[in-house]
Specification:
126 residues; alpha/beta; five-stranded parallel β-sheet; 5 helices; globular
Length: 126
């Protein structure tokens, strides 16, 4: 059995490393993307189980990516964690996301969430 795929879409290199390591330690295969346009290109070919999505990205916004995810039947069930330092925008998008995390986000906070999400995929695979 292969590990579920987590896609990290984050332009801050330090946060990208933190998110990647938290997800890997929770048992996910991880791919990272640093801008919105590349994310849309990759999402046309990938079906990740989890996406950690920053709202403020270069080239294409996280909001646009979230709308794309929810409009595509293939990706509509992907578990989406929005990350942002903008709580007002996050609140307007909350109904489209599975979870919203307001920055700063600690490694342990994300790791604990990732473990819970990973166990969900493990129980579905049985």
């Amino acid at each position: 059995m292969t590990n579920p795929l987590a896609l990290i879409i984050e332009d801050d290199p330090n946060l990208s490393i933190l998110f990647t390591e938290a997800m890997r330690r929770a048992g996910f295969a991880v791919q990272t993307i640093v801008d919105g346009q590349t994310a849309l290109t990759e999402l046309s070919q990938l079906t990740p189980q989890v996406i950690i999505l920053d709202l403020h990205l270069p080239k294409v916004s996280g909001k646009t990516i979230l709308q794309y995810l929810r409009a595509d039947d293939r990706l509509a069930q992907t578990y989406v964690i929005l990350t942002t330092a903008d709580p007002l925008t996050a609140e307007t998008l909350r109904p489209m996301a599975n979870l919203v995390l307001i920055k700063p986000i600690s490694f342990f906070q994300l790791h604990d969430l990732a473990v819970r999400i990973s166990s969900r995929f493990a129980s579905e695979a049985k």
